[in-house]
Amino acid sequence: MVGGALAVLASPLTAVESASGATTVEGIALRQTRSGLVLTLATSGDTPQMVTATAGKVLQADIAHAELSLAEGKRFSQKNPAPGIDSIQLESIGEDRVRLTVNGHERAPMSDIQKSAGDDAVLIKLDTRAIAKARPSKLPDAIATIPGDSQSPASASETSSPQASSERVEPAIELAQAQRTETPDVLVPNPSVVIDGTPISAPSLNTAPPFLPRASAPPVGDFAVSDIDSTLDVIDLGSAERVPRLVLRDASAREVLSLLARAAGLNMAFTNADENGGEGPDVRVSLDIENEPVQNVFNYVLQLSGLEANKVGRTIFVGPRLPNSARNVLVRSIRLNQIDVSSAVNFLVSMGAESAVSKESTTTSVNAVEVGGGTNVSETTTTGAAIENQRADFEDSDPLLRGLQIIGDERTNSLTLIGTPRQIEIATAQMVQLDLRRRQVAVNLRVIDVNLNALDAFGTSFSFGAGNTSILQSGGLGVVNFGNIEPASTRLSPSEVGSGLAPLLGSLPFSFASQFLAQLQAVVTNGQAKIVTDPTLVVQEGQTAAVQLTQEVVTNITIDRETTETGVLTTTSFEKEDAGLNLQVQIDRIDDNGFVNLSVAPSISAPTGTFDVGDSGTAILLSERQLTSGQIRVRDGQTLVLSGIIQESDRVTTSKIPILGDLPLLGALFRSTNRTNDRRELIVLLTPQVMDDADTSVYGYSYTPGEDVQQLLEERQSQ
């Protein structure tokens, strides 16, 4: 019935001891109201943590870390508890979750969860006013069915519906656990909107932007690629003969090469001595060749057996390690431009070459003498050359440049390569790729130091006399004089408020007025200053440039006094520091895509005050603002702005006459207030531009000097 009170008690509220750190649902009660239905869950243990979710016609509320303890068992279900609601189920999901499922007639009801005052019950208000409709009064007599399992129809209808609805709203519950949206209990809910027969869902409030479906890799740019043919030398037999058919099994490589050389009409000289002078192993090969040139087969056997060969005239010298007199040895010297010789040698050694680097060393020797002896200590400096040998041994690979000898000279920054023509060609091609000029970048630095100063001062002064009594009040200083004698030897310094009246007098003589005199002064001063530095630095890749606009100030004074026979010897030492702008820019890398990796560290310091150090005078206090950016990446021509280096101070100074200066309203006549606001901000604008230092570049050659610079250049040329 609508408007009445209907109470259904599912189970008695029996006390059940809950597990530690869990919530126990002990009972459920339903009460029909004008707006819908109110569910009361009797709980014990910890405070329930509920998460609600809506999907279609189904409203689900999950209680995390909870268990269900009812008299009937682990499940409660009721159909048609109120208009607009088809069924309600309360069941356990897993071991630590309790789920409440409410199936609406046309759509899910709106929910409002509250904590009951005075007990551990939870109130769930379901609003069905927007969805309640008249139900049909007549049901069919029978429905068509098909044979199924042994489960009764009643139990099947009770269990299948919750499971199906549970599967439909499971993704929505996972989403609601991350973000919970509560619908307030409003008097008039938002009306439903239907366009062309399609209902439009109510707008929802998005508290956060959507997340990416997955992590994406950062973008990559183009990079330079250079391929070098690493094929070793081949022996040109000078014959076009072909082998129609050749089948050999475990034949000696020496005999096979001799057979092929005779087929090409050439001679062969073979030595079995290895690189250590001993006899090398007898290498054997198996061949199954058909219709192949003799020259190709000859080189195939050389490659399989690892033997060296060199053709001189009509004779081919073959062996595991040929002597230099029988090898085709070439010597080439390379003068390096950009890369240093030690780095080049290390690179070629890693490819299998052997090196010998000549380095100059300076040795200083000092002779030892007895203490107090007449012989003076002498030093001898000797300059000599030392040779360092390098060789890399590999376990799982055969180096490409094995047998190539490298000699490096640090004084001339040159390399000498000794080896076969093919090895020297490969090594030279590698040096061409490495001996590249480092890029340079022109960095424009614009440093702005903004000072925003404000002064707000207010003060009053007055004086009057009555008979032998005189009263004076100036800038919060009150003086009362009794008698006719004035302390003329005392001088009165005006405050900052009245200092503008007599700037040339300094301090004023102490005097009183016989008549009433009054003065009211208010000062508001605003100041703004900008110091702009706009240098352009040309920095090479991997180097650091600095800009310093500083001056030395004395920050500490140390006085040492030593008593001697003639008196006291005083020694004064000063500690100096640089005050001003100090800016360092480090260019780490400039890549092929126009990106500049750099780091900048601006700092600015300025004197803020002085302190007394005794008889020697005063020292200066420095205030420093510093920022270190770390390594950042900027595109060529892009401007980087570093700001937020702010220093702000607000000082208020009040001078007043006791008691009188604290009076409301009238107290302003007996006090003076001075408020100073100082705000300083450092802004750095950095724009890198990669320089084109090619032969066709005109960078630096199209400079047009100004009139003053042109006049100075002409004067120097005339001298």
SS-based structural class?
mainly beta
Number of strands: 37
Under CATH at level 1, the class of one domain stands as Mainly Beta
Distance between the termini: 116 Å
- Give the CATH architecture of one domain: Sandwich
**Roughly what fraction of the amino acids lie in strands?**
over 45%
User: Any low-confidence stretches, pLDDT <50, length ≥5?
Assistant: 1-21, 131-184, 488-508
**With helices defined by DSSP (H or I, 4 residues minimum), what is the helix count?**
6
Main sheet characteristics: 7 strands, antiparallel
CATH fold naming of one domain: Immunoglobulin-like
User: Shape, please?
Assistant: flat
Textual characterization of the structure:
- The chain has 719 residues and is mainly β.
- The chain has 6 helices and 37 strands.
- Among the domains are: 7-132 and 156-184, Immunoglobulin-like; 242-319, Phage tail protein beta-alpha-beta fold; 330-364 and 382-436, Ribosomal Protein S8, Chain: A, domain 1; 534-647 and 677-690, no CATH class.
- Residues 1-21, 131-184 and 488-508 have low confidence and may be disordered.
- A hairpin with a 2-residue loop joins β25 and β26 (477-482).
- α2 (253-263) packs antiparallel against α3.
- Strands 24, 25, 26, 29, 30, 36 and 37 form a 7-stranded antiparallel β-sheet that branches. Strands 1, 2, 3, 6, 10 and 11 form a 6-stranded mixed β-sheet that branches. Strands 4-5-9-8-7 form a 5-stranded antiparallel β-sheet, with helices on one face.
